[in-house]
Specification:
The protein is α/β, with parallel strands linked by helices. The protein has 2 domains: 116 residues, Rossmann fold (3-Layer(aba) Sandwich), CATH 3.40.50; 181 residues, NAD(P)-binding Rossmann-like Domain (Rossmann fold, 3-Layer(aba) Sandwich). It is 35% helix and 14% strand. A 7-stranded parallel beta sheet has the order 8-7-6-9-10-11-12, with helices on both faces. A 5-stranded parallel beta sheet has the order 2-1-3-4-5. The longest helix is centred in the last third of the chain and has 20 residues. The two termini are 33 Å apart. The relative contact order is 0.15. The structure holds 1,4-dihydronicotinamide adenine dinucleotide (NAI) and 3-hydroxypyruvic acid. The site of 3-hydroxypyruvic acid has 7 residues, from loops. 3-hydroxypyruvic acid binds next to loops. It holds the Pfam family 2-Hacid_dh. It comes from Yoonia vestfoldensis. InterPro entries: D-isomer_2-hydroxyacid_DH, D-isomer_2_OHA_DH_cat_dom, D-isomer_DH_CS, D-isomer_DH_NAD-bd, NAD(P)-bd_dom_sf. This is Glycerate dehydrogenase.
Length: 322
């Protein structure tokens, strides 16, 4: 007897290979032109499906989750961060939530290095100058930046991305310091110096790189008080989430020169970023592309499908969060 395929909503355009595999197993409903659904459109699109495979651009707040149909039983995210999903609300409704860890850690660590170097060595300022035909001068004092080799690299949130980013920073001869909810085992720590408070980490970080999830505990963790703890002319790197940083305080620290520069892949308001930050030469900015490589996007899509397949086969999805 033929059993019908589960119906799966894929709200954003995913890689062709991922869509092809999805269609083998599911009746796929696509959002044809890849726009971000409004809250109402997301709720409406979910009414006729058994599962959804969203990105961090689809916000499953408690009120959206309350409006989902009983037949929708799993939200299989195409992201590792799940701050766009109200996990307690999903759990209360018996909706399974999964994410895509590990497969994007290398790509995101690469972008953290790009942000660090772009900020330290004035990458976007120099690029704009050459591109716009304003490079009409050179001297030994021209466009001088900060060397990161041999400096201290502070990791706030030493999880999957944080550990790989630390490995990449070791390649620059940097001394690794970190703060995490719990201390790592020596084989994972690899000689990095553990700090049992955020403040203690910040006090030594020539480069501070953020890698903890956005949560009520981490929102605004980087603010006027904590920025003032960093060494003079430090560099802030954020590839985690914009919510971690008070952007007004960051702008003030960058304007005063207290902070040498910032390298940012994520912002409080996305897409778009912060126009006031965009006015500053000492900010290197990217449009949330931490995981945006062909290889990684395939792997994220396949990982989300693995989670869905396990769920519909009646086995525990590898990356089940609730
Ligand atoms: N820019 C981008 O495109 C990407 C951004 N991300 C962001 O990076 C985050 C981290 O990803 P993973 O490393 O895979 O997650 P993870 O869960 O492996 O690591 C997060 C670490 O932060 C620690 N942590 C949590 N709260 C903390 C707190 N209050 N103080 C100190 N440490 C705390 C945890 O103990 C854990 O070790 C994601 O949640 C996501 O927001 C991840 C991938 C791509
Ligand atoms: O996975 C995430 O959390 C992202 O931010 C995008 O890959």
């Amino acid at each position: 007897m033929m059993t019908s395929k589960p119906t799966l909503l894929i709200p954003r355009k995913l890689a062709d290979a991922v869509l092809e595999r999805a269609r083998d197993t599911y009746d796929v409903i696509l959002n044809a032109d890849d726009h971000v659904f409004t809250r109402e459109a997301l709720i409406a699109a979910c009414q006729t499906v058994d599962a959804v495979l969203p990105c961090h651009s689809e916000h499953f707040s408690a009120d959206v989750i309350a409006a989902l149909p009983d037949r929708l039983r799993i939200i299989a995210n195409h992201s590792v961060g799940v701050d766009h999903v109200d996990l307690p609300a999903a759990k209360a409704r018996g909706i399974v939530v999964t994410n895509t860890p590990d497969v994007l850690s290398d790509a995101t660590a690469e972008i953290a290095m790009l942000c660090m170097l772009g900020a330290a060595r004035r990458g976007s300022e120099g690029d704009r100058m050459v591109r716009e035909g304003r490079w009409n001068f050179w001297s030994p004092s021209f466009m001088v930046g900060r060397q990161v080799t041999g400096r201290r690299f502070g990791v706030l949130g030493m999880g999957r991305v944080g550990q790989i980013t630390a490995d990449r920073a070791r390649g620059f001869g940097m001394e690794i310091h970190y703060h995490n909810r719990s201390r790592l085992s020596p084989d994972k720590e690899k000689g990095a110096v553990f700090h049992d408070t955020v403040d203690s980490l910040l006090a030594v970080s020539d480069v501070l790189s953020l890698h903890c999830p956005a949560s009520p505990n981490t929102t605004g963790l980087i603010n006027a008080r904590t920025l003032a703890l960093l060494p003079e002319r430090a560099i802030l790197v954020n590839t985690a989430r914009g919510a971690l940083v008070d952007e007004d305080a960051l702008i003030a620290a960058l304007q005063s020169g207290r902070l040498f520069a910032a390298g940012l892949d994520v912002f409080r308001s996305e897409p778009g970023g912060n126009p006031a930050l965009a006015q500053l030469n000492n900010v290197f900015m990217l449009p949330h592309i931490g995981s945006a490589t062909f290889e990684t996007r395939d792997a994220m899509g396949f990982r989300a499908l693995d989670n869905l397949d396990s769920f519909f086969a009646g086995t525990a999805p590898l990356d089940r969060l609730v």
